[in-house]
Amino acid sequence: MPHPPALRPGIIPLRPLGLGDILDGTIKLVRSNPKAVLGLSAVAALLGALPIAIGQVFAFDSMRGLLNDPSASEPADLTGMYGGFIAQYGGALVSIVVSFVVVTLLTGVLMRILGRAVFGGKISAGEAWQLTKGRVPALFGVVGLMAVIMLVPLVVIALLIVAVIATGTGEGSSAAAGGVAAISVLLIILYIGYVLYFRTRFALAAPAVVLEGKGPIEALRRSWNLVTGDFWRVLGILLLTSLLVGLVASILEFPFTIAGSLVGLLGESPGTAVLAAVLLAVGGTLGALITYPFEAGVAGLLYADRRMRSEAFDLVLQTAAIEQQRQGWVHSSADELWHPSNSARP
């Protein structure tokens, strides 16, 4: 006999989730509470996009002078061009720092919204922030530890490449140059594999911080344990999510990036520089508006899925949902159900 359909009070069925359930649930998360999810995401996206847009405008200003007079080779001209590049990459660096702060906060708040949406409940952005702000230090702790884990090998690889180049230059042969290139490519490939491995292992740390009240190290350990036994599936879903949102974000950004670049390069007045910055910022904001909530939603639903598969957590969710349906509303006590002590199989 066919099994009866799983209980579905909110954005997902309360059973182990397939890929379609996770993607569909993420879309339903946005649609069920668009004001909170998209409003918060828009603020985060705009704050991250502005520094890059401003830096690119300065770069366009320098490049425009070079395009208008290609024969210019005075040191002042070169200084201006280099200053434009510094402004552009400086803007990118500032954007990374800003994104680090706002995306960390956004992820935590979205986890609160998602935790209630699983039961069909809604929560305002203000209420989600009140429930999340106490977990902000732990969220930053997780991101800081992740940054160290990702950056330390990168610094080592960079030093190794510099050392190999210095050694190869001394030999002065094309064979040595080819060897340097091969070693550099190999190290970069190994680093990409390293990043994917640890990014997957720790992908569920943010939900553990917000929904379970874990500290940074405990949250990383919790994520590692939840991913164990299903690593390749989690990796595949994360990669597919990044590919999908990256494609959609690129399509949304493309017309604004082209228009902003043309205005920035061809315009002559201060007004055109401002218009270029606005167009670039709008494009970056639209792209991030898709990327931020979707990736956070997928991570949150993967967390719920892994708990249902490894801890029989679907039984806990179903029991709570039945009681909530009997009462006719989703109480705030639903937030406490995510604590690991409530798992049917700890």
Descriptive report:
The protein has helices at residues 19-32, 34-68, 75-117, 125-132, 136-171, 174-201, 205-212, 216-227, 231-266, 270-311, 313-327. It is mainly alpha-helical and 346 residues long. The protein has 11 helices and no strands. Helix content is 80%, strand content 0%. The model is unreliable at 72-85 (pLDDT under 50). The two termini are 31 Å apart. Helix 3 crosses helix 4, helix 3 (75-117) crosses helix 7 (205-212) and helix 7 packs across helix 8 (216-227).
Q: What is this structure's SSE topology?
A:
Elements: H1 19-32, H2 34-68, H3 75-117, H4 125-132, H5 136-171, H6 174-201, H7 205-212, H8 216-227, H9 231-266, H10 270-311, H11 313-327
Helix pairs in contact: 1-10, 2-3, 2-9, 2-10, 3-4, 3-5, 3-7, 3-10, 5-6, 5-8, 6-9, 7-8, 9-10
Please provide a brief summary of the model.
With 346 residues, the protein is an all-alpha fold.
Helix-residue proportion:
over 70%
Q: How are helices and strands ordered from N to C?
A: HHHHHHHHHHH
Structural class by helix and strand composition? mainly alpha
Which stretches of 5+ consecutive residues score pLDDT under 50? 72-85
Give the CA-based shape.
Answer: globular
Mean pLDDT: 80
Please state roughly what percent of the residues sit in beta strands, choosing from under 5%, 5-15%, 15-25%, 25-35%, 35-45% or over 45%. Answer: under 5%
Keywords, please?
mainly alpha, 346 residues, 80% helix
